[in-house]
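Dig into what follows:
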Amino acid sequence: MPILSVPLLLRWSRRLLLGLLVLLAVVGSGRLVQVAWQSGYDGAREPYLQVVSSEGITLRWQSGGNEVGVVRYGSDPARLEREAREETARVSHEIRLTGLTPATRYYYTVGSGSGVYRGGPDYWFVTAPPAGSAAPVRFWVQGDPGWWHEGSRSVRDAMLQWTAAHPRPQRPPLDLWLTTGDNAYTSGKAREFQAALFEPYADLLRNIPYLPVYGNHDARRWTFFKVFSFPAAGEAGGVASDSRRYFSFDYGSVHVVVLDSESSNLGGYGPMLRWLQHDLAANRQPWTIALFHHPPYTRGSHDSDRWRDSWGRMVDMREQFLPVLEAGGVDLVLSGHSHVYERSHLLACHYGSAATLRPEMIVDGGGGNAAPYIKPAGRVPHAGTVYAVVGSTANLDHGPLDHPAHAVVRRELGSMVIDVAGEGLDAYFINAYGEVSDHFRIEKSAGMPAAERRCGE
């Protein structure tokens, strides 16, 4: 049997390596083509609202071909006297309306210079109240809503029935629509967004501004950042982040912070954490709510104590970001990812595993109808934060549901409605049967001592 020479072995090794690299390049190119193709959608799409502020709003829609987009709008549905027009023809349209009056209902049509695409008395939006306004506000929060099926339809209908039974004079049923991520299963494809969001929710999207959080399933394609707009320049309040992945905005008395726990640097010296510190330091609103996908406390379909679960993102968010959020006086943190509902005690200074939770870290163990969580007025550092996992709008998974940080756990489909008025924040978890499965209230008392708690002492 001939013995292979060293030069011959080296040549064969180089050829094998070259062949392997060529194969990887071909597979990688094919994957990129697949991702790009599945991230696009060439059909018509109804208008949907984005980036609302007290003086502006963004309208988006998609036409069947290249057109110069036109929006006509006004406060009288019979007289749409104002117009905004794109400069070039395109299929996917995005127009920002500015110079609007706060807390005002406007009617609109969208289309092209040759004719109206959609419009009428059912096409309207309401601008946000001025930042710092005491006007009551109502948010809807969906948790991981990326499947459309009978269960998620029931969740939507239950919310609509509840808001109809609890109307607000001179106000729409909802002011703002938020999610906790994973908005299109299984891979964030354009057609999955179409099937899970744009088609079944078309009637709501034309009236209620929609702002989704970025989830791990959304990150599998490029659709998410192609079809949504975000207030990265501070155009709706807050400190400009110059990033579509994390940002903040004001809506009346509420400051909303959206973080990216999926793809941004979660380290202690990363740009997102530095921006968050600046943003919270500049915040002047009496209420602050933060949203991101990976929960800091959960024992549902995920376990926040496990480094191997979700590449340690839940641990990183708890260890790196919770100290900053609590120091900035954040009142409520909403996450998804775990397909259950969990709601914590009023917590402060707990950034370790479940086993490290000590009694003094539970600032208030109440929160229910008869015993609201009580906090001092204003933005007192480490005065207590409620953490809620809202991840079961469309998916429902198993789990032990025994994290000691949580006061209430539910394994049922549902969504959350949040009402903020004056010195109180009420949150209602409404299940698919229309029942308020959990209700908690946070009250801010001007008479409560505002001494700052120091963590680690």
User: Anything to note?
Assistant: The first strand starts at residue 45 and ends at 50. The two ends are 75 Å apart (CA to CA). The first helix runs from residue 6 to 38.
